[in-house]
Amino acid sequence: MKHSSANEKRMKSDLMLTKCAIILLSVISIALMAAGPFWVRWVMRRPSPLLEGEVRYWLMLIGGYVCGALLLYCLYVLMKLLKNLETGAVFVKENVDLLKRVSVIILIAALISLFLGLTCIPSMAAVAVIAAFMALIVRVVRDAFARAVEMQDELDYTI
Predict the structure, then answer these.
(1) Cα distance between residue 7 and residue 134, in whole Å
(2) Mean pLDDT over the full length of the chain
(3) Cβ atoms of residues 56 and 64 within 8 Å
(4) Structural domain harbouring 81
(5) How far does CA 21 lie from the centroid of its chain?
(6) Which residues lie closer than 8 Å to 93 by C-beta, 6 or more apart?
(7) Do 33 and 64 form a contact (C-beta atoms < 8 A)?
(8) What is the pLDDT of residues 92-108, one digit of tens each?
């Protein structure tokens, strides 16, 4: 019994730490978005592979805001997933759907980053590759959760 209690305390503390990280990342994202024009002007000093001037500025600013909004939405979805885990709802269909949503959000951000990397700032292409890899990892986890939900359903109907 003592061992289970220690694991439960560790899990609660891990979930709390993750929630704090999500909140901190949300605040940082909002601050970066608020300073968007400053950061885009700073990046504009670097060479561009294709676009220059106003078109480049607005593409980077809008792309940054869209990616920032996607990040905030992704963090919101992750917070919902954490709340489910906290309540003991682990292998449920809703979590599979939430993980699918996260992978789609990351994939959209990867495509935007790739476009910005090819047209405005080459380093964004590296961000696109990393994001695409993360989307694949989340999809694998989602598939594992989906299989676990199926197994849980079979077990529930066995009794």
Answers:
(1) 28
(2) 94
(3) no
(4) 2-158
(5) 12
(6) 149
(7) yes
(8) 999 999 999 999 999 99
How many structural domains are present in the chain? 1
- Tally of CB atoms within 10 A around 105: 23
Enter the pTM of the model: 0.90
Q: What is the DSSP letter of 132?
A: H
**Amino acid occupying residue 15:** L
- Written as six digits, the tokens of 21 are 């990280």
Residue whose token pair is 């964004």: 124
158/113 Cα distance (integer angstroms):
47
d(CA 103, CA 122): 24
Secondary structure string (H, E, C) spanning 64-131: HHHHHHHHHHHHHHHHHHHHHHHCCCCCCHHHHHHHHHHHHHHHHHHHHHHHHHHHCCCHHHHHHHHH
The angle at the Cα of 149, spanning 147 to 153, to the nearest 5 degrees, equals 120
Q: Which tokens go with 128?
A: 């696109």
The C-alpha R_g of the chain, in whole angstroms, comes to: 20
Quick: pLDDT tens for 109-148.
999 999 999 999 999 999 999 999 999 999 999 999 999 9
How far is the C-alpha of 48 from the C-alpha of 28, rounded, in Å?
Answer: 26
pLDDT in tens, 13-57: 999 999 999 999 999 999 999 999 999 999 999 999 899 999 999
